[in-house]
Amino acid sequence: MKQSSEVRREPLPYAVFGAEHIDAASRAQMDNAMRLPVSVAGALMPDAHVGYGLPIGGVLATEGAVIPYAVGVDIACRMRLSVFADPPELLSQQQGRFEKVLREQTRFGAGAEWKPPRQDPILDDPDWWATPLLKQLRETKGIPQLGTSGSGNHFVEFGELDVLTYDAKLGLQPGRYLALLSHSGSRGVGYQIADYYSKLARSLHPELDKELAHLAWLDMSSEPGQEYWLAMNLAGRFASANHRIIHQQITKAAGLDVLATVENHHNFAWEEVLPDGRRVYVHRKGATPAGKGELGVIPGTMGDVGYVVRGKGNPASLNSASHGAGRQMSRNEAFKNITKKMRDAYLRERGVKLLGGGLDESPQAYKRIDEIMAAQRDLVEIIARFQPRLVMMTDDPRDI
Fold first, then answer.
1. CA-CA distance, 213 to 200, in Å (whole number)?
2. Are 323 and 266 in contact (CB under 8 A)?
3. How many Cα neighbours within 13 Å face the side chain of 305?
4. Helix/strand/coil (H, E, C) string of the chain?
5. Phi, psi angles (nearest 5°) of residue 366
6. Which of 190, 250, 374, 390 is the most exposed place for a label (fewest CB within 10 A)?
7. How far is 50 from 28, CA to CA, in rounded Å?
8. Nearest to 234 by CA among 204, 199, 193
C-alpha cells in the first residue's frame, strides 16, 4: 500500500533518556522524525547529538517503510569485543609486542585496503549479484576493503576488562582479563548503498521540505524498498566480516586464546513487533539494541572506560540504549578548542597510549560516559568495564 506523504503538524510523543545531556537541535531533529506519516514510535538516547535527518542516538519505528538516512551512511557500524585467557598485565610487560601487532594487523582510513585482499565467505554471498550496484560494490569496495577500519571514531584497541558479575551468555567469572575491542562498519560498501538509496528516496518524495528531506522513506512494498533492505542486510554481514578478520588476524599474530566474544551493531533497521502487535521497522541510528538479556558494548572514548551491558528490554526505549558517550563538540569545535597537550595529558593520567587518532576524537570532545550510563539505568545493566590501554586509530591530516 502506498504510504501517505502528509506530514503531521505536531510530532508524536516519544521517550527521552538523559534530557539534560541533549541539545535543542537534536530534539528538533527527533521532533521532525516523529512528524513523518510513516512514524509510529520513537525514543532518544542520552548520547544524542545532531546527525543528518535523524539525530545520532535516535530510535525510530516506522510502519511499512524504511528510511535510508535514519539508518545512516555507515550501515551496521558495530562493536566487537574479544576476551582472552591471558592476564592484562601483559600489556605493560610486553607493550612493544602488542603495539607491533596493532600496527601490522590493522588498516585505517578511506583508502585503506589489504594487498593481497583478505578472504572470507562473505565475498561468496549470493546477494552481491542481486543488483548491478551490489555487484559493482563487491569488486570496487568489498574485496579490497575487507578486514579494514574506517576513519573518524573507528578504532582497534587492547585493554583491561573487569568482569563485575557472571552472565551465562558471556560465560566469564568475575575478574580481570586482557581484551581487544574494535569499532568500525561497512566501509565504502555501506556508504555507497546509503548514498544511492537516500538520493532515490528523496527523488520519490519531492514534496518534503528542506528540514525533512533527509528523512525521505522507501515503501517496503516497492521494489526500491526491497532492494534497499537486501542491500542493508548484506552490508551488515560485510561489516561483521570486517571485524571477524580484524580479530582473527590480531589474535593469531599475538598468540592469544579467545575465551569469549561480544558483538553488537547500530546504524541499522530491524523488523520488530511493538507491544500492541504492530510490525514495524526500528531504525537505531547510533543506538544499541538492548532487548531483555541481550549483550552489547557501549564504549567511552580513547581514554575513558567502556561497558559490557545486558539489556533490560525497556519498551519505552524500543529496547534500545546509547551506542557511546556522544559528542559534545563538533569536529571543527574540537580542533579549535583542544590541543595535543590537553589530549595527551588526559590520556597519560589514565595510562593510555595512543598509536593514532585525530584531535577531533579527543576525550574532551565527548560527553562524560559515566553520566550517560547513569541516565540509562532503566535500559541496561553493567556487567563489565573495559579500560583502553593501547589505542589504534587513524590520524587526521589537520593534526599533522
1. 11
2. yes
3. 15
4. CCCCCCCCCCCCCCEECCHHHCCHHHHHHHHHHCCCCCEEEEEEEEEEECCCCCCEEEEEEECCEECHHHHCCCCCCEEEEEEECCCCCHHHHCHHHHHHHHHHHCCECCCCCCCCCCCCHHHHCHHHHCCHHHHHHHHHHHHHHCCCECCCCCEEEEEEEEECCCCCCCCCCCEEEEEEEEEECCHHHHHHHHHHHHHHHHHHCCCCCCCCHHHCCEECCCHHHHHHHHHHHHHHHHHHHHHHHHHHHHHHHHCCCEEEEEEEECCEEEEEECCCCCEEEEEEECEEECCCCCEEEECCCCCCCEEEEEECCCHHHCCEEECCCCECCCHHHHHHHCCHHHHHHHHHHCCCEECCCCHHHCHHHECCHHHHHHCCCCCEEEEEEEEEEEEECCCCHHHC
5. -115, 160
6. 374
7. 9
8. 193
Question: In whole angstroms, what is the distance from residue 125 CA to residue 239 CA?
Answer: 13
Q: How many CB atoms lie within 10 A of CB 258?
A: 14
Tell which residue, 298, 299, 304, 301, has the closest CA to residue 350.
304
For residue 281, give the C-alpha cell.
Answer: 521497522
Q: Is 338 within 8 Å of 358 (Cβ atoms)?
A: no
Cell of 387: 579500560
Lookup: cell for 179:
581484551
Q: Cα separation of 306 and 106, whole Å?
A: 21
Whether residue 273 contacts residue 281, with contact meaning beta carbons closer than 8 Å, is answered with no
